[in-house]
Design brief:
Number of strands of chain B: 24
Structural class of chain B: alpha+beta
Shape of chain A: globular
Radius of gyration of chain B: 42 Å
Strand order of the largest sheet of chain A: 1-2-6-5-4-3
Distance between the termini of chain A: 17 Å
Number of helices of chain B: 8
Helix content of chain B: 10-25%
Number of strands of chain A: 6
Strand content of chain B: over 45%
Largest sheet of chain B: 5 strands, antiparallel
Strand content of chain A: over 45%
Structural class of chain A: alpha+beta
Number of helices of chain A: 1
Largest sheet of chain A: 6 strands, antiparallel
Largest interface: A-B, 16 and 17 residues
Oligomer: heterodimer
Distance between the termini of chain B: 83 Å
Amino acid sequence: MTKKKHVAEMLHKHNRRKVNRFFELLDLPVEAGIELPRITMLGRSDLLLENHDGVLKYTSVCIRAATCEGTFTVNGAKLVILQSAQRRLVIRGEIESIGFGDN
Amino acid sequence: MLYSLWNYLTGYVIIEVKGLSLERLMNAAAQLGIDLWATERVSYTCLHARVRPSGFRKLKRAMKKGRVRCRVHILEKHGLPFFLSAFRFRKAILFGGIVAAALLIGALQLVWTMEVTGSVNVDKADVLAAVEAAGIKPFMLKKDVDRDVLASIVRTSDERIAWTDVRVQGVKLVIEIVEGEAAPELIESERACDIVAEKDGIIKTITVYSGKAMCKVGDAVKAGDVLISGTYERGDGGNRYVHARGDVKASIWYTGTAQAGSTSLVRERTDNTALVKTLFVAGLEFPISEPLFALYDTERETTDDMERLYVPLAFHVKYIREVVERNVAITADEMRAIAQSEATGKAEKLLPHDAAVVNRSCAFTEIDGGVRADVSIETEEKIGIIVYKE
């Protein structure tokens, strides 16, 4: 990552922290202000990812999506995207691991 | 399920996308508002997905503009719009299907048959006659049948009916009745009356609680004779009237006579069997096959009632066996047995259901080469009935 990009990302994180702190003071839910990625998982087979910024990689063993918190990765087998509407991804398959970052 | 139903109603296509930037296609579809679902990566350069026809057209336009460098084509088409498009050159079959459906729905709005259930002593034909008199006939609209009014009419048509229910099961009108027990006769204990004989007989016992006995044990009485009188003579020449009460039992004889000849008609079953089939449509009988024999016995019958399918059809099959009659000579003992059996049957038909049988006797007389049997059954019964004075 270049220095410019690194600075931009640091500023972006700093601004987000300030917005989060503002919403906490007003006792408002944090997700009301910034669209944080929301991950809902049911067992080991179904996963719903909301507020993503696009699919970066899709294979039957790995799905990567961009979010404001970084790259969200799902590893597993027989992965199928059941629904890919705007900023909403429904994944089904044998999920082995999930996480943020290029793992 | 609703989502699947909606997809079927709006229609969708299964597409195959080939290219290197498949993820870009997915992101571009999301940005264009194209709903892709059931997306499956088949290989590194191939992807299958489902999309609505409108979404597919948008995708094609986007590809033409060069937004995405992939090739896409349709693998399968599903849904009602594609099903109906197959009929665009066969409108007559579609019209015929709609007419058939309309006729079926119209037929289901009518009452095709009527059935009476629960009747024991009340004749079903009488109930159906009362229903017809109320204006309810087959092939009238179900909504025109006022069930409460009809139930009331049926219940009041016969005093033996205690309760009635009318309901429509499919295309059949079912009238269920429940018969009640007859109310006991009310006795006006303050009103003057006599006890008279209901039948002819010989008095066995007489017990008087009120009134004056007009007969004694051993007397022969006829129907209508006064057994216990409710009239007392006063000393001044006038009469005093009371409500006569008492029990009078008498011996009554019921007789039956029958003859038997020296030959007897015997029915013999042969090995020949056949089926008799009949189709019932809305109560009308349509024979499919006739009996092959002039004389036959019915071994068993089966009926396949298709009213559970709300169709007034019934298929009836009768299994018959040929029967041959011939006269055979019988012995004297057999003649007597046949004559006695027949005569006893005739006498027993006259017996009241609660009669206590005291004695049976049978006398035989030979006539014209045959035998005549005279059977007599003696019973002991209460024969007194109340007759009120005017």
